[in-house]
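PROTEIN DESIGN WORKSHEET
SECTION A - STRUCTURE
LENGTH: 380
TOKENS:
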């Protein structure tokens, strides 16, 4: 039977704050409005958080100090690009290289219940039972030990996390300014965020038994200058896709994922305008900072090329960034590519009036990348 036709395990997604510091949970409650209908979800989240508290407290006190400093010379590679541009596929593909480490789905939710054996046994098993077999927005396979972006985990102890917007979508603009541009964030708070990030990376490398940290975090698309300040030798892979496809795919993703995570409700019109505003803002921030990346530390590909020639794209990336190991990992890359041939993408339909409005707002980006209206999208 075709892999895409197999029944996928149903599950329940919970807001990621189940593994957060109680101080962060309190800050979320203090700074954002939770609508009445979502209070049961919030209280369940707090209950799980309280159950987890002694386990993560033990790990923070007795285990984390071993991993606070990154090893000298640790190689860092950041995959950036707007959501729905192929960052997940590229991350999953390159992570087939045995030398590549990453944050797992489990670590992204419970970053400080990773090496505490009893806590890990309880919460990994709990999460494995609850998590769906596939992501609601795009049919991507989910699993506790699979590669995951680390943005959720970056908000666990320090309240600088863009993915708070999943819980509070009405506040997305304010959250962007604070968590990506670090507006009004004190130097001490930013420094603590940096330390938390280094700890997360160090633990991820230990957890995966690897030497190179491979990050996939679209939120970093607007943080390039900050990452370079902290990690001046970091390497970046930027992937782009037709902005019209990005918009439609993002809208579908948000529409399907947000009901599982939100503590506020927004209208369809608010959601769609937020997506357009987010695209324009983060792409502007990226292009304003792109020139800061030193030569030899940057590689750029398109989603179309990744789909058509995945091996050539990966080989190009390894050469551009001077990363060794492509030939040794090539069989693993090919095996993953073969398995993905049965993956079915979502199909999108858009009205003529909506397409015309999109083209007005997204035209600068389309021209910058040389994109036209995608022929396979149905306009009615």
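SECTION B - SEQUENCE
RESIDUE ASSIGNMENT:
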């Amino acid at each position: 039977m075709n892999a895409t036709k197999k029944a996928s395990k149903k599950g329940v997604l919970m807001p990621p704050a189940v593994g957060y510091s109680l101080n962060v949970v309190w800050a979320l409650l203090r700074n954002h409005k939770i609508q009445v209908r979502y209070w049961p979800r919030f209280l369940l989240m707090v209950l799980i958080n309280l159950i987890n508290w002694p386990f993560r407290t033990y790990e923070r006190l007795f285990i984390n100090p071993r991993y606070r400093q990154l090893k000298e010379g640790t190689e860092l590679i950041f995959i950036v690009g707007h959501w729905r541009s192929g960052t997940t596929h590229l991350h999953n593909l390159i992570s087939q290289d045995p030398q590549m480490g990453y944050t797992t789905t489990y670590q992204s939710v419970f970053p400080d219940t990773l090496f505490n054996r009893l806590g890990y046994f309880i919460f990994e098993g709990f999460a494995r039972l609850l998590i769906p077999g596939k992501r609601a927005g795009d049919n991507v396979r989910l699993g506790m030990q699979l590669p995951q972006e680390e943005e959720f985990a970056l908000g666990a102890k320090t309240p600088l996390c863009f993915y708070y917007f999943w819980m509070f979508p009405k506040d997305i603009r304010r959250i962007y300014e604070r968590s990506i541009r670090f507006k009004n964030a004190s130097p001490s708070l930013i420094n603590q965020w940096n330390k938390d990030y280094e700890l997360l990376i160090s633990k991820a490398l230990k957890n995966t038994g690897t030497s190179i940290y491979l990050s996939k975090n679209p939120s970093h698309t607007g943080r390039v200058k900050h990452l370079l300040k902290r990690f001046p030798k970091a390497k970046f892979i930027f992937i782009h896709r037709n902005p019209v496809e990005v918009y439609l795919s993002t809208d579908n993703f948000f529409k399907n994922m947000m009901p599982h995570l939100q503590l506020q409700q927004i209208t369809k019109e608010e959601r769609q305008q937020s997506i357009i505003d987010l695209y324009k803002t983060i792409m502007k921030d990226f292009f304003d900072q792109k020139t800061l990346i030193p030569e030899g530390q940057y590689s750029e590909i398109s989603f179309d090329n990744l789909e058509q020639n995945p091996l050539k794209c990966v080989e190009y990336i390894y050469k551009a960034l001077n990363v060794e190991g492509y030939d040794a990992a090539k069989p693993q890359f090919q095996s993953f590519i073969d398995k993905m041939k049965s993956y079915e993408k979502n199909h999108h339909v858009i009205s003529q009036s909506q397409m015309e409005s999109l083209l007005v707002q997204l035209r600068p980006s389309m021209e910058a990348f040389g994109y036209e209206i995608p022929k396979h999208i149905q306009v009615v």
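SECTION C - NOTES
Residues 39-62 form the longest helix (24 residues).
Confidence is low (pLDDT under 50) at residues 1-7.
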